[in-house]
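Design request, C-alpha cells follow.
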C-alpha cells in the first residue's frame, strides 16, 4: 500500500502527499477525512480515517505529477517548521536546508531566493515571536531559556527591586567551563543597545589558545552598581563549585568603570586588572569635546599633536609616565589647561591606578573584541 505524508500550506492548512500528488482536505465527517487533488481541474479523491491512515482512492488523475513542484513544497515546509520552532536566523536555516536538499536543476531555478524567502518567513516568525517588552517585567518563554539542543541557557533571572530592576544572565554549562578554565577574561558593557527596562548589555569573553573573542556570558543589567557586579561574580563562583571548577582568572581586561574596578578588587583576589587602550583614548576624546576643544583639535595641528602626546602616555613605561606628563604639560598650549587638570585628577592622582591603564608591557591592550560583538545587537534583523 502506498504511504502518505503531510505538509502545510503557507496559511497553515494541511496537505496530503500521495504518489507525488498533493491533496487538500475538502471535508471531515465523524469517521473520515475527504481529500481532493489540489489541481482545480482534477477530481481525484483520497479518503483517510481521523488518524490519517489511508483508505481507498477514488478516480484517476487527468494530469501528470510535478515532482519539481513537490520537492519545492517539501523543502519550503521543512524550512518553515524550523523557522517557527527555532530562533536560528532565517538566512542560516535557508542556507543549511538548501545545501542538504539536492534540488534538481528545475527545482533550484524555481525556488525563491533567500531575500524573497526571508521576507515571507520573517512575517510568519514575527507572528510567533513574543512582543518586545517595554519594561523589565515579562515572562521568558521556554524556547528562550534553552539552546537548540534543549540544553539550559538561562543561568540567572531575578529581580533586585520588584518591577524596576532585574538581572538576566545567559550561559550554557560549556560556556561556563570555558570561563572557569580561562586565565584571562575580557568584560565590557554597552548602553545604547540595552532593551527597554534595562540599563546595559554586559558581556564576558574568554581567551582560548591565545585567541580572544569567545563569548561565554551574556547579561542584561538594570544598573551599574558595584553590588550588582559582585552578585554576578559570586554567582559564577557558585556555578564553578557545582561544576567542580574554580572561577579565579589571573587577568581581567575591562573599561575604566569604577563599579567594575571595585567589584574585581572585592571578588577576584590577586588578579591583574588592566584597562583598555580604546576606552582610555575614547575618554580623553570625549573630554576634549566636552571642554569645547573639538574645533581647535580639528583645525590646529599643534593642539592636536599635544593631545595625542597625552593619549600616548598609556604606551610609555610606567616609571616614565609622571615625568613625561609634566614635560608635556610645561610645553602645551594654555588652551589645554583644563584638559591637563582633568587628566591629572582622573588618571595620575585619581581612582584608576597607573598600573591599570598603562599597557606598555601588556599583551592584550584592548577589550575591543567585546565591543565588536556588542555591535551585533545594533542590527534589528540580526536573527
Amino acid at each position: 500500500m502506498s504511504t502518505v505524508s503531510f505538509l502545510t500550506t503557507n496559511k497553515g492548512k494541511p496537505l496530503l502527499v500521495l504518489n507525488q500528488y498533493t491533496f487538500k482536505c475538502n471535508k471531515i465527517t465523524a469517521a473520515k477525512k475527504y481529500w481532493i487533488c489540489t489541481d482545480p481541474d482534477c477530481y481525484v479523491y483520497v479518503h483517510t480515517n481521523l488518524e490519517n491512515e489511508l483508505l481507498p482512492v477514488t478516480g484517476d488523475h487527468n494530469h501528470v505529477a510535478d515532482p519539481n513542484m513537490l520537492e519545492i513544497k517539501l523543502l519550503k515546509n521543512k524550512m518553515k517548521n524550523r523557522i517557527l520552532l527555532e530562533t536560528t536566523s532565517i538566512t542560516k536555516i535557508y542556507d543549511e536546508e538548501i545545501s542538504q536538499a539536492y534540488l534538481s536543476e528545475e527545482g533550484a531555478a524555481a525556488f525563491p531566493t533567500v531575500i524573497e524567502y526571508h521576507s515571507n518567513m520573517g512575517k510568519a516568525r514575527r507572528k510567533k515571536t513574543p512582543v518586545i517588552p517595554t519594561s523589565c517585567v515579562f515572562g521568558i518563554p521556554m524556547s528562550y531559556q534553552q539552546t537548540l539542543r534543549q540544553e539550559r541557557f538561562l543561568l540567572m533571572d531575578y529581580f533586585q527591586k520588584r518591577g524596576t530592576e532585574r538581572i538576566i544572565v545567559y550561559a550554557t554549562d560549556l560556556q561556563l567551563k570555558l570561563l572557569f578554565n580561562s586565565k584571562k577574561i575580557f568584560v565590557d558593557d554597552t548602553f545604547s543597545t540595552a532593551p527597554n527596562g534595562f540599563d546595559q548589555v554586559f558581556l564576558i569573553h574568554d581567551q582560548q589558545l591565545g585567541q580572544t573573542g569567545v563569548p561565554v556570558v551574556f547579561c542584561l543589567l538594570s544598573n551599574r552598581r558595584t553590588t550588582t557586579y559582585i552578585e554576578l561574580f559570586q554567582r559564577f563562583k557558585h556555578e564553578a563549585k557545582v561544576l567542580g571548577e574554580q572561577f579565579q582568572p589571573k587577568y581581567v581586561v575591562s573599561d575604566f568603570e569604577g563599579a567594575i574596578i571595585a567589584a574585581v578588587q572585592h571578588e577576584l583576589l590577586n588578579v591583574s586588572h588592566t584597562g583598555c587602550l580604546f576606552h582610555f583614548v575614547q575618554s580623553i576624546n570625549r573630554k576634549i569635546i566636552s571642554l569645547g576643544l573639538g574645533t581647535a583639535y580639528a583645525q590646529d595641528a599643534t593642539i592636536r599633536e599635544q593631545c595625542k602626546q597625552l593619549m600616548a602616555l598609556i604606551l610609555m613605561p610606567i616609571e616614565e609616565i609622571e615625568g613625561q606628563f609634566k614635560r608635556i604639560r610645561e610645553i602645551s598650549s594654555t588652551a589645554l589647561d583644563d584638559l591637563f587638570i582633568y587628566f591629572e585628577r582622573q588618571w595620575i592622582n585619581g581612582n584608576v591606578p597607573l598600573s591599570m591603564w598603562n599597557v606598555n608591557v601588556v599583551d592584550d591592550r584592548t577589550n575591543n573584541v567585546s565591543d565588536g560583538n556588542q555591535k551585533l545587537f545594533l542590527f534589528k534583523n540580526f536573527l
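Comment from the thread starter after seeing the answer: thanks! The first helix runs from residue 67 to 85.
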